[in-house]
Design brief:
It is built from 9 helices and 8 strands. A 5-stranded parallel sheet has the order 2-6-1-7-8, sandwiched between helices. It has a 3-stranded antiparallel sheet with strand order 4-3-5. A hairpin with a 2-residue loop joins β3 and β4. The protein is globular and about 40 Å long.
Amino acid sequence: MRVVTISATYGTAGSHIGPAVAERLGVPFVDRAIPSAVAEELGCTLEEALAHDDRAEHGLGRLFSGAMRLPTVTFGGVDMYVPGAMPIAQEEFVRRTERLLVDTARDRGGVFLGRAGALVLADHPGALHVRLDAPLKRRVRQTATLGELSEREARKIVEDNDRARTAYVRHFYRADPSDSSLYHLVIDSTSIPVATCVDLIATAAEALD
């Protein structure tokens, strides 16, 4: 079962490239499914879980401040939501996300977008680790075009997301997500067409068999 992790800076079409690679390889695309599964396990809503997600707009700040910690107790070996109980710390949320990611990679394979997949699955046999990146100016332009936004609005979105994603990886993994040594393949998907990026990634993944 093939496994591909994709680390994508905002404005590099990761949400388009990831599903296309998964379809090409015949494996699941795993993105929002991870926090959804964690939310179910913790007994909270998806909206609450996304506050802990590295891609939520203000989620990382709330996560660090502890404002969205989830109270649970264990009953019959299952963690359940109980108002007023001891909170689950941010590290526990990330640990459960990691476990789900590892289990999915082992049992089904998949294309995993974000969530420090290259670090979490660094030791997974045959996994391909990909970074999608490009100069800020081109990512802002692409975000503005696709989102029908002004360049000023697009720049704020891109910069806010860059800070949040970088902080997430540095805080929990003491690593820099822009470090090229974490990846087998680094692609500028603002210069190379999306279809070509998909071909490059799928071909590289197949070559690791």
